[in-house]
Amino acid sequence: MLKITKHIVYDEHHNPVAVQVPIKEFECLEEIIENHGLARLMEEVADDEKLSVNEAKDYYHSLKQNVES
After folding, report:
1. Using CA atoms, how far apart are residues 18 and 9, in angstroms rounded to an integer?
2. How remote is the C-alpha of 67 from its chain's centroid?
3. Where are the domains of the chain?
4. pTM for this one?
5. 20 phi/psi in degrees, rounded to 5
6. 2-23 burial by CB neighbour count: b if 16+ within 10 A, else e?
7. pLDDT tens digit sequence for 1-21
8. Phi, psi dihedrals of residue 45, rounded to the nearest 5°
9. How far is CA 6 from the centre of its chain?
């Protein structure tokens, strides 16, 4: 398990308002969240129709043309 060093920031009424973490630990958290999101997206499309390489290229080019126009 990832150990997270937390520094809690309090307001003038001693209510917790924020947490500071070292940048290296934050970057690890970011990577974990991104990987989790990617895994969820991959699970969502696992049963979708598979395209051949040529079909995928054609689809990609059609998307690119729609963006450019």
Report:
1. 5
2. 23
3. 7-68
4. 0.59
5. -105, 140
6. eeeeeeeeeeeeeeeeeeeeee
7. 788 999 999 999 999 999 999
8. -100, 5
9. 22
